[in-house]
Each structure stands twice: as structure tokens, then as C-alpha cells.
């Protein structure tokens, strides 16, 4: 899911504008509209997985279905350039359908997947360690999406054919990774469905939103992910228009960044045990915001040393923010279970991924609209051929806007007070 999510967030806006021929503003609106329906589908998927009865458990059947839909839609999405000869209205419908299908595949897989850790362990620190493996997988997916993907595109011609080649290679990887997750969780601890007090979906949402730590976590994730989505969707424009560099150079930058996300997990795990999750988040956000803000001073001919230094600090910050943010979700699920005695991890995962996808939709949509308003001309790589206004929009997209998002997330995090002492393990509750 990381591979698919980061590939589309990084590449799809520029691909639709420069290779499919969709106007920047319209492309941004289509990406945003494709995510809006998740306000219904994600919570619905969570409820479905909560109530599923199968020999594979409540969650695992959807890992297989989600892997198939995700891989197929990803390949179709980055082959749309081959249909650019169709009429403009037909093309818009095809783009919208493919984006919807891609979002659906993500929903089917990721909502049950996010609910699984809360069932695997109730130990506060063990859960953080468990999530560190997910964060490590996210960074590996990031390397494939942001480094290997652009390299494949450049190798096969950088245009329509390059994106098609990338889609086949990464689409196959998405499918294989989904199957691996299905197989490797076959013996994982899970909670079987048990009929319990029935409430309407509206009532479930109302009760979930009474969970103050969960509401605060949503605020943290929304502000963080809007900033991250803006940053990712702006980077291809920044490297080509501002730095005058190729996608392969951008891939090298993200290779370093993702590598430090992965390597930093050991340090952040140790830091959270010693100083707590909140303080770790503040430090990670400081690294992140500082590196993002420094892009304001970059220009064509920027020394490689400075570019890679930004990648290091962005990776360190992103590694901490990612680990801590994801480890808090099962904490809020356990808190809900302690309050109510009801197992509804899927509902929380559904609301969480709704916020996640809507946030990631706002980033590309905002950038597309701003670039269109600034007069960005698709398909042109030469520095002098883009307006001054377009260049300022691109600068804001990789620096100011994401820095504001991450900084806002850290401010909201100061209100998050759910700690180890507030969460009793299953064994502790059984002992009275």
C-alpha cells in the first residue's frame, strides 16, 4: 500500500498534466473528487470487516481482494497516456473511473490491515515495536515508489512508455506484497466475530468521536498528511522546473530519504521508550519542518551535498512522525475497548483511512488548482517557459505548505495525553 500510495501521490498529478493532457486544475479536481466518496466506503469497509466470519478470520480475506484490485488499477492508471487520442470528455470519464478504482483497492486492503495490530497484542511497547515493522515496510515501499519508479520511467523514455513500464514492474510488486502479507499473517493472533449489541453506523461514529484521543489523532494525521501530499505532488515539478534535474535525480533524493526513514526506526524506538511518544514526535517534527523550510533557498545548480542533506533530515523526521503516528492508532482502539467493551477496530480504521485519503486528496487537488491559476503549461520542462507565479506555487508546495502542515500536527500532538498508564493489557484486566 505504501508503494501504491506514494507512487500515485508523487507522480499522478504531473503524469495526468504532462502525459495524458488533462489541464492542471481539472487534474487536481479529479484526484480530489476520486477520494471524496471514501467518506462512505472506508467506514463501510471497516464495519464489513468487523462483522465478517470466515475460516481466514475477519480481516485476511480482504487482503487478497485488495491486492488484486490495487495492482490492476495501478497498471491501468499509468497506462492512461496510451488512450490520450480519445475525446476529452471520454478521457475525463476514464481518468475518474481509474482513480476511483485505485482508491477502492486501497480501501479494501488497508482498512482491515490497519485494524489487525490492535488484535495482535495489547502490550503498549510491544505494539510500538510491531508498528516499527510496518514503518520499515512503508520506507521500503517509499524507496520503490520514489526512487526505483522514477528510475524506470527515465530508463524507458520518461514519457508515456516510461510510465507504462513503471506500472508493470511496480504493479506486480504490489500484488506480490499483498499475497506475502496474506500468507505471513496466517497464524497471527486475531479476534473472531462475536454478535454484540447492534447499533447504527451513525451511532458507531458518534461513539467513536467521543474517544478524545482518537479525535486528536485524526487532527494530527489530517494536518500532517495534507502537508505530505502537497510535498510529494510538488516534488516532480520542483526537480524539473526549479532545479532543472531529471526524474532519476529525484529518485536518488528519495532513495536517501527513504533509507533514513528505515534506518531511523531503531533510534526512534529507543527514544520513545526513554522519553515518551509525545517528545519523540516533537523532535521528529522539528527535523522535518527545518528540512522542508530550507527548500525555499534552493535554485538551479543547487549543490548535491545540500540536496542530500535535506534528504537525510527529512528522512529522520519522517521516520519518527510515521512510527509514532501509526503506533497511536491501536492505542486509541484499545482505549475504546476498555471504555465500552465492544470490539470495533474496523470502524476506527475506516474513519482513520477516510481522513487519510481525504487529506492526501487535498494536497494534489490544491497544487493542481494553484498551478492552473498560476498559468502552468503542461509538457514543458525548460525553466524559462514557466511563469514566475508557477515557480512560486511550486516553491510553496515543497516548503511552506508542508512545513505548516507538519508544524500544526505537532501543536495538536501537545493535547494528546493517552499514555502507557492509561492502557491496561489484557492480562492486567484479567487479574483485576
What does this protein structure show overall?
By secondary structure, the chain is mainly α. The protein has one domain (2-187, 202-426): MFS general substrate transporter like domains (Growth Hormone, Chain: A, Up-down Bundle), CATH 1.20.1250. It is 78% helix and 0% strand. The chain has 16 helices and no strands. The protein has helices spanning 2-20, 24-36, 38-51, 60-77, 88-120, 124-155, 160-184, 201-209, 212-242, 247-275, 277-293, 304-340, 345-374, 388-398, 400-413, 426-430. Helix 9 runs parallel beside helix 13 (345-374), helix 9 (212-242) runs antiparallel to helix 15 and helix 11 (277-293) runs antiparallel to helix 15. The radius of gyration is 21 Å and the shape is globular. 54% of the residues are buried.
Amino acid at each position: 500500500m505504501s508503494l501504491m500510495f506514494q507512487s500515485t501521490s508523487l507522480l499522478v498529478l504531473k503524469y495526468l498534466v504532462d502525459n495524458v493532457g488533462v489541464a492542471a486544475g481539472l487534474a487536481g479536481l479529479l484526484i480530489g473528487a476520486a477520494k471524496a466518496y471514501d467518506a462512505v466506503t472506508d467506514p463501510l469497509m471497516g464495519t464489513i470487516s468487523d462483522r465478517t466470519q470466515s475460516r481466514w478470520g475477519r480481516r485476511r480475506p480482504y487482503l487478497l481482494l485488495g491486492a488484486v484490485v490495487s495492482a490492476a488499477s495501478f497498471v491501468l492508471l499509468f497506462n492512461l497516456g496510451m488512450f490520450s487520442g480519445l475525446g476529452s470528455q471520454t478521457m475525463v470519464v476514464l481518468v475518474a473511473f481509474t482513480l476511483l478504482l485505485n482508491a477502492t483497492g486501497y480501501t479494501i486492503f488497508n482498512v482491515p490491515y490497519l485494524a489487525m495490530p490492535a488484535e495482535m497484542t495489547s502490550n503498549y511497547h510491544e505494539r510500538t515495536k510491531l508498528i516499527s515493522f510496518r514503518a520499515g515496510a512503508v520506507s521500503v515501499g517509499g524507496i520503490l515508489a520514489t526512487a526505483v519508479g522514477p528510475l524506470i520511467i527515465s530508463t524507458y523514455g520518461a514519457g508515456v512508455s516510461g510510465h507504462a513500464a513503471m506500472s508493470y514492474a511496480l504493479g506486480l510488486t504490489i500484488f506480490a506484497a499483498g499475497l506475502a502479507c496474506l500468507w505471513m499473517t496466517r497464524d497471527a493472533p486475531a479476534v473472531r466475530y462475536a454478535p454484540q449489541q447492534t447499533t447504527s453506523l451513525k451511532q458507531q461514529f458518534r461513539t467513536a468521536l467521543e474517544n478524545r484521543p482518537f479525535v486528536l489523532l485524526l487532527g494530527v494525521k489530517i494536518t500532517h498528511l495534507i502537508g505530505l501530499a502537497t510535498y510529494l505532488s510538488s516534488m516532480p515539478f520542483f526537480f524539473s522546473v526549479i532545479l532543472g534535474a531529471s526524474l532519476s535525480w529525484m529518485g536518488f533524493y528519495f532513495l536517501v530519504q527513504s533509507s533514513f526513514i528505515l534506518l531511523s526506526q531503531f533510534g526512534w524506538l529507543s527514544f520513545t521508550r526513554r522519553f515518551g511518544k509525545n517528545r519523540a514526535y516533537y523532535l521528529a517534527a522539528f527535523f522535518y519542518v527545518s528540512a522542508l523550510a530550507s527548500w525555499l533557498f534552493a535554485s538551479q545548480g543547487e549543490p548535491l551535498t545540500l540536496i542530500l542533506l535535506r534528504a537525510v533530515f527529512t528522512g529522520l523526521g519522517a521516520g519518527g512522525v510515521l512510527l509514532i503516528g501509526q503506533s497511536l492508532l491501536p492505542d486509541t482502539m484499545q482505549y475504546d475497548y476498555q471504555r465500552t467493551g465492544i470490539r470495533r477496530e474496523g470502524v476506527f480504521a475506516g474513519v482513520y483511512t477516510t481522513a487519510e485519503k481525504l487529506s492526501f486528496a487535498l494536497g494534489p487537488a490544491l497544487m493542481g488548482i494553484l498551478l492552473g491559476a498560476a498559468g502552468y503549461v503542461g509538457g514543458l520542462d525548460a525553466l524559462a517557459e514557466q511563469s514566475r507565479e508557477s515557480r512560486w506555487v511550486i516553491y510553496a508546495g515543497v516548503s511552506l505548505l508542508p512545513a505548516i502542515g507538519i508544524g500544526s500536527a505537532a501543536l495538536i500532538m501537545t493535547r494528546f495525553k493517552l499514555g502507557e498508564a492509561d492502557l491496561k493489557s489484557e492480562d492486567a484486566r484479567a487479574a483485576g
